[in-house]
# Entry
Amino acid sequence: MNKDESIRFATKYLEDLLSFFGINVAVDSTLDDEVIQLSIPSTSMNSLLIGREANNLRALQHIVSMALVGREGELTRVNVDVADYKRQRADRIAEQAEDWIREVRATGHSKRLNLNAADRRVVHKVAQDYSDVKTHSEGEGRERQLIIEKISTSDLDD
# Structure
């Protein structure tokens, strides 16, 4: 399947999957940086679709992605969002990241955070705007942590 076919397939596959659960909605699809973005409009089932810690959203993404792999789609990376949940969460995390960075800059003490991969990416992106802090991740799987550190003045001189 080429890119257009992959997008159409992913959209229809998700719509069919949702209809199996009695959720009959049109899914909006776009392509952003080689990732198929699938947006489910708000319904009375939002909390079920999102799930605890967005686990159900991640499961939906995985199912659609694996269906694309099985069909040998040119595109296989998928992002599923429900009623802009992920965008709103990313905005909240970005605001929180600003606070964490201010704290690290003021105290000089590193901050270790237990965040999921998507939230870690948001914090890394926010931290790029500051020349005196750096971020990195350590650990594996669910134990992976994000570290925000102040860069010492000697590091800035290098």
Q: What stands out?
A: The longest strand covers residues 35-40. The chain has a mean pLDDT of 91. The first helix runs from residue 3 to 20. Helices lie at 3-20, 46-50, 55-70, 85-107, 117-127, 153-157.
